[in-house]
Amino acid sequence: MSAGRKLRAGLIGLGAMGRNHARVLAGLDGVELVGIVDPAGDTTGTLRAPVVPELGDLLALGVDYAVVACPTALHEQVGLELAANGVSALIEKPLAQSVDAALRLVEAFEAASLVAGVGHIERYNPALQNLRTRLEAGELGEVYQVVTRRQGPFPHRIADVGVVMDLATHDIDLTSWVTGQEYTSVSARTVSRSGRLHEDMVAVVGQLADGTMVNHLVNWLSPLKERSTVITGDRGCFIADTLTADLTFYANGAIDTEWEALRAFRGVAEGDMVRYAIPKREPLLVEHERFRDAVEGKESDIVTLRQGLRTVEVAGAVLRSATDGSTIAVGTGTPSPAGDTLSTR
What we know:
Elements: E1 7-12, H1 16-26, E2 31-37, H2 55-60, E3 65-68, H3 75-84, E4 88-92, H4 99-111, E5 116-119, H5 126-136, E6 143-151, H6 163-179, E7 183-191, E8 201-208, E9 213-219, E10 226-233, E11 236-241, E12 246-252, H7 260-266, E13 270-275, H8 283-295, H9 305-324, E14 328-329, E15 334-335
Parallel strand pairs: 1-2, 1-3, 3-4, 4-5, 6-9
Antiparallel strand pairs: 6-10, 7-8, 7-14, 8-9, 10-11, 11-12, 12-13, 14-15
Helix pairs in contact: 3-4, 4-9, 5-6, 6-9
């Protein structure tokens, strides 16, 4: 790209998330949002850029990169067309609705030597970024457990995938990213209570490569909106609230208590509680800045398609486990040894 020229960006998808992308793209330094296409046929636009009928019309405008925010079931088709036309892409999470589709996207963009990323926005949440830095610095010591809770009302906009692919992929990606560890096994149970084809509640127990225990509780069935990540280790625990971007640390205390009944009730010695003051920039804006920099050829921390593929693999294992009641060794597609297999209910 010549010095001074703005990157020409396109947007595919005008749903709730697509309109947020349009808002950020329209004000992003060094970028011009030149056109939008909506596969669902929305032609009302956002007054931020012209809406064109087809993806081919968007490509004809000449775009350096595109943001793919259409339904997950369309990611593969749209992404492959972008790759075939030499257009870099930021694809909303999950990368695709199946491992095979995600792998085809990875291979297409790699073969074309294009910059491509996945919109796992929690990586840009200030609380989780700060938490990751503190874990890397050893502030928690050995990590024992990661527990996430992500629950809220049913989003009527989601029709093509269930809560595992749509919401739990957030928790799978952030857990692996924050700890720096890959999943090695998962076991899960799902239910569907909203009358839809796909699951709307899941409970997951997993293990990471270093032995850390993982628990995810995710649903679309709660009037309470909650986004919590709790990481426990030998020096205490961190609690990240990604709705408010607050990070709190509860330390294991060095001072014992002489009150026998209280000591038995509290268990681990209770130490100081610290809530950190963190600069709170909008995660979606940070995500776009990082991707813009990568397209410009600068060193930038984006979520690669291979990382997005890994998250889809783990989510696929969660769904398989829920179907057959077994513990799935991630990456092999086969159940763990019989001693780890759970009975089907």
